[in-house]
Amino acid sequence: MDFKWIINIILLIALHVGLVKLFMKAGRQAWEALIPGYNLFIWLKLIEKPWWWLILLAIPGVNVMMYLIMVFLLIRNFEEENPVKLVAGVVFSFFWLPYMGFSDQYRFMGNDYWKKYERTTAVEWTEAIVFAVVVATIVRTFFFEAFTIPTSSMEKSLLVGDFLFVSKVSYGSKTPNTPLTIPFTHHTMPFTEDVPSYSEWISLPYFRFPGLGDVKNNDIVVFNYPDGDTVALKAQNISYYRLVRNFGWETVNNPNAMNPITGQPFGKVVARPVDKRDNYVKRCIAIPGDILEIKDTQVYINGEKAKNPEMMQFSYDAAFNIPQAPQKLFDKLDITDAERYQMANVNVWRLHLNEKNKNELKTSSLLVELQARTDPKGQYDSDIFPNTPSYSWNKDNYGPITIPEKGVSVSLDTQSIHLYKRIIEVYEGNNLEISGNEIKINGQVSNSYTFQQDYYFMMGDNRHNSADSRFWGFVPHDHIVGKAVFVWLSRSTNRDFPNIRFERVFTFINNDGLSRSYFFHIMIPFLLIWIGWSNRKRFMVRR
Asked: Are 180 and 197 in contact (CB under 8 A)?
């Protein structure tokens, strides 16, 4: 048996032993502490809290906070006033409750013991904050969550500095795999690089509630980064598997080793559960069952040209007739993604341009030459999935490839296994062995495999500056987080104060990646007038 499960069993036994003794001290029957569900109902009666708290206790993530609150109230009702002991009791409840149960110094006093104390402002504020944390956790776990765009992979559809609301009900909210987590954190404690903000002592199986619809072609989707199951903490911006391919497993997993290119350490290598992997936002190019192919940068789905995003960008090399950066021209054309490098004693700028600013740039008198950077068909790129010369693909010429669909079987051989190896082993938890021409799945020789869930192919609109499915493969359905639906704030690092992009604030996101919503813009002046009118007395001069 897994060591983790042994510890969990010991802790649960200790907790229930403690509850038995405490229930008996409170005048209840011992058996009431041993019946799952019913013991929580009796516990709520002892601390005089409503029965509907049972609903909150059934919500993963929220139930952890509710348990801690109930432990605190139970300890307090046993005549414990010392704040240090109260905190220690909550943190070490699995040991503290049995200690209280067997100790003669603790008597059950009930809430009446505390009613003699006057409610202070601090107590009221604490209760309000706890309630707000519980409600906010429910909302962000199952309905909506705020995200920000940190990279330019979706430019110019979504911009660096866009703050999004992501709908989790669009595709069905999923219960957290790791409910033991610090509220409002993702995978790392604030102000630290490698201190996890969660514990895997309790791991829940994947479960998703019914959604409002399915993921469709061209939806802008937020998902857990599939390659993020393993991370080198000092190089989190690069796929761990890419680091291993480039530098070797032993080098990357040596915490003292340095990256030969950057001169920085790789750091400790850690594994993360699905819900604690980095959140990525991309466009869903292909859904389960689609046949995808990229020919000279143009995406084809099932043999037909896919609709190109209006603001889709590609990379170009630009040479200008001035030695310095034409920054005013870049600002005028809204070119925010530019990199300078030297080529044949000439300063060249690598620019990421959409069709609009590319055509405008061509009319500039400063431009000497503009050349597209594309990879020709047949040129193998080792960074492109499935990372084998058997498939001589690159980011501009890729496929054809069929997107895996739940319940559909594919034939396996020594070539096709490269496409599905990670699905079989990692995403669907099978034991895969490859020996010569023989493929074994869970010990059985297999020449086919049936997928257990749906998969998707995601790409960024900034096609030459996006780490997406072309580099790390398919996105499993259990990695889908939600649909990007709303920009509530947008801040630019390239603008002087104020750096808010007011034209993007309070705008909805459609599948073209553009935001169109005039309702909120019209309502803002009326809202300000209402606030001013309702507070007019505060601004009146007293006579």
From this structure: no
